[in-house]
Amino acid sequence: MATTMAATAAGSAVSSFAKLSSSAVAGAGVQNAAFPRSAAATSLGGKASSLYGASMPYARNAVSVKASSTSRNTLTRAELGDSLEEFLAKATTDKNLARLLVCMGEALRTIAFKVRTASCGATACVNTFGDEQLAVDMLADKLLFEALRHSHVCKYACSEEEPILQDMEGEGFSVAFDPLDGSSIVDTNFTVGTIFGVWPGDKLTGITGRDQAASAMGIYGPRTTYVVAINGFPGTHEFLLMDDGKWQHVKETTEIKEGKLFSPGNLRATFDNADYEKLINYYVSEKYTLRYTGGMVPDVNQIIVKERGIFTNVTSPTTKAKLRLLFEVAPLGLLIENAGGYSSDGKQSVLDKVVVNTDDRTQVAYGSRDEIIRFEETLYGDSRLKAELAAATV
Ligand SMILES: O=C(COP(=O)(O)O)[C@@H](O)[C@H](O)[C@H](O)[C@H](O)COP(=O)(O)O
After folding, report:
1. Which of 44, 203, 229, 254 is the most buried (most CB within 10 A)?
2. What pTM, to 2 d.p., does this model score?
């Protein structure tokens, strides 16, 4: 309640501030559009400006978290209200990983601006990139490759648009990304997003989601947010893009509770997958709330924000798997599991699936523990989570 009140009070301060300094904000937009190199450098080395203080709507709210022994041995305090850079200094001792996440954050900020100002016709939503007019998903793709090259800590990168590994000429990590998930719903002004996973080393096949050093999504909705999970650091962390262009830590999720909320992807599969039909009928008969946009980023993000629910995308003999393990499913798996949730392809966590080819596809569910048990039992008659739970309680 205290946080909500602080946010409301400061919210009106922010809007009067925005009115007073609309030219400064417009200027920031122009600067964003010009990003990637200069802004990344400023952010990496820069200090919070006075603008930052003026527009900070959330009271600093200390949250104590115990980092795992693989990352830090000391009690680390992640505080709501921290900047992205402050948070990363507490969440990881790996300065290269922090640098990469900051660089990607700068690209996300620019993509948000490009999506917000895209012009949409009958066939595509386009915006400018230098002298070019590009579809926004292609533009996002270019910006992300540029940011990774600029980071100097990325060896290889590939994307849904460019699945062949590209040499980024840095060292430390390799990154796979979906530049603009939901590009077909940009024109309807639904929320869309970027998804990426960061793997240590120089391999993006022969790896699993569990090997990720971090994963994240950028979410372009009424607000722009950057949701980050760092392997070995508890929780999934939401950062809000502020008026001054900085990311501010506004939420930490460490538990996905039980609650009747469902997002049924590939619903057409119920036509010839009787078990999926049975699962959907269960949700309806139990009066679950339907919350589904058809964009995987907002549909999965709502589980992290609401801290409950289930997202399913199930296949059938006539509707094959569409979602890609490397670019979408594994990174979202780490975000959900770090938040205290569970993921499944029907039989195992999606984090345990080996990426054989960059184009591997799979069915998937994300949600609370009991929802994932129900998902596995309904589809395959049994759930490995039950056995794990029984073993844990002995
Ligand atoms: O892949 C996605 C979007 O593709 P695109 O618009 O080409 O960037 C995802 O967002 C999924 O399409 C989505 O979550 C969902 O699985 C779609 O399923 P359905 O509603 O059955 O079409």
Report:
1. 229
2. 0.84
